[in-house]
Amino acid sequence: MTATAAQAPNPSISDTFYTSLFEVDNGERIRACLQCGTCSGVCPFGYLMGFPPGRMIAYLRADRFENVLESDTVWMCVSCYACTAVCPKEIPLTPGLMTRAKEELLLEGNVPTELQDALMNSQRYGNPLGESPRKRAEWTKGLDFDIPTFREAKRPVDVLWFVGDYPSYHPRVQLTTKAMAKILRVLGVDFAILGPEENSDGDSQRLAGERGLFEMLAEKNGKAFGKYEFNEIITSDPHAYNAIKNEYPKLGINFPVQHFTEFVADRIDELKPHLKDIGERRVTYHDPCYLGRANDIYDPPRKLLGAIPGVELVEMTHNRTNSLCCGGGGGGMWLDGFQWEKAHVRLSEWRIQEAVNVDADILAVACPYEPPRFEDAAKMVQGAGRLMVKDIAELLADSLKMEE
Amino acid sequence: MNIVVLAKLIPDLVEELEIDDSGTALDMTWLRLIINELDDHAIEEAILLKERTGANVTVLAPDIEGVDDILFTAAAKGAERLIKIVGDYESGVNNHALARVLTPVMKDLQPDLILVGVEAHEDLDGSIGPLLAGYLDLPFIGYVASIELEDGKATATKEYPGGLSVEMEVTLPVVLGIQVAEEPPRYVAVSKVRQAMKTAEIEELEAGDFDLAGGPTIDRMYQPEVSEGATIIDGSLDDIADSLIGIFKELGVQ
Ligand code: SF4
Ligand code: SF4
Questions:
Q1: How many CA atoms lie within 13 A of A195 on its CB side?
Q2: Which of A121, A287, A303, A306 is deepest in the core (most CB within 10 A)?
Q3: How many CB pairs under 8 A join A and B?
Q4: Any idea which of A103-112, A325-334, B21-30 has the lowest mean pLDDT?
Q5: For the domain with range B2-206, which CATH number is right: 3.40.50.620, 2.40.50.180, 3.30.565.10, 1.10.10.350?
Q6: Considering only CB atoms, which chain B residues are within 8 Å of A118?
Q7: What fold is seen in the domain A124-265?
Q8: Could you give the ipTM of this predicted complex?
Q9: CB contact under 8 A, B15 and A113
Q10: Residue A305 alpha carbon to ligand 1 centre in Å
Q11: Cβ contacts (< 8 Å) between A111 and chain B: which residues?
């Protein structure tokens, strides 16, 4: 073959797909794949995927991408960046190969029904849970202080708090949202939320192959951001953080953003005098994929935990760059039934087992997907009866409460 | 083979419904509209039939806010022709009136098969399928869950309560009320819908005047009222659980 794929007169599906991968940042590195198989080996579901990354590349090279499109096991990919982190050739496997493959499957209509519902809900209501968009700020009602929306504030505000889908609507995650509100209040931060003007960040939908939907949601958020004056965005959701930091700028939506843990870690000295002993607790921390591997934020969450009197921080076997995925990324949050049918194991249970192994009292988390996922999992794991799952914001708020 | 699907937009129950000042109708200010789920199934069934038999699919819908989206989505799924019926829907239109307006439109389209969701939650004067069949003088079968087409005939599988299914053969043309499509309505990527917005065209037809005769006159519309036989237990989860345990004990549950 003398012509390159792009120049070939009748490019095959494999050719077109392969060339499209070069559009992703550093995408051309895929040419250098050694077929070492490290990616497939580290993939949490690699053993049951018909086409884990390395093999998918082999099929592309063999001009047989059709076989990939017929398989549904690509939907087992939880976009956890584990493969990307270990690839010796630094090929962007998660944002490139795997996400593009899901995009093709989605266009072909090869989508599990469970996932379709979440996508449809995001399209209709701006959130994957199918909740009323008008009720996006309803969580603020149980608080004994006011959370202003920009529309009500009618003035420039220092910080825009992008609350996110699960923190706004999920009853368990709302507890972490309220804890975060309390911390911002103690810190005296001048902030406001968008309320019903906020839409899903769209990142997990993008990683589940629905790029058009992601763009639609991003445009809506970009428009809302553009309406108001503020200095920076903060969010407790690593997926929203990833979208606003790395993906929105590609669509011309440029706003500085910090994850909640970074923002508070910078102000920890102001918070410290208010933090009281929560009693002796062995705490272990789960690095969420989109804070850790995808964005290299490992220390601020640990700094916050270390600042809480009484906390003894212990690490699980898998931590930092080799942290284990909770199973919720890349659409996994909406594919629990599908994953169970294929695997008969839950990634979240594996993680709970690791927390039990280090004899932790508390599994601390920093992503809104995790409290419900890990609490469910803890019910199924032997010896996890006394393990508590708490967002770092909740632990900080508990420690603040001791003061009252 | 021409298949015409009739789709309606109805209030989305994700938002709480409110009654307007007249006390006889829904307050439309905050109402969200959504495609009637069973009409969505009717569209899916039509597309499945198209894929099996090469039939042409036309989707027809009253011109209410949001109708373009549902029509373009249908085009992205494979519908060839999109038509919206323009008219004054603001003052409230019932199914009798709509069926009468649609009768000449349907006659012009000369469909072999008319598919429509078997019911919608806002049907106050009966579902539209049988009304339409009546005005068109065509047979109607409702609660259909699958369709086979062959030699100018349709075999429809109708679902009865109690898990009973019956196959009925009927000569075309016919109106079928769809209970469920053979496969769940497919998801189409937003990019495909956006593509359809650029390429597909929506034809507009005038409804003319609506004649509401045959429909109900609404004296009063209201939210369900708590009846006296019921006790609502308020409070925190713990309080509620405590009261429940008390009540069960009182009733003699061991
Ligand atoms: S780890 Fe990288 S180089 Fe090795 S097979 Fe996977 S993609 Fe190829
Ligand atoms: S992103 Fe995670 S789940 Fe997806 S292929 Fe890579 S390692 Fe596997």
A1: 17
A2: A287
A3: 41
A4: B21-30
A5: 3.40.50.620
A6: none
A7: Rossmann fold (3.40.50)
A8: 0.87
A9: no
A10: 36
A11: 187
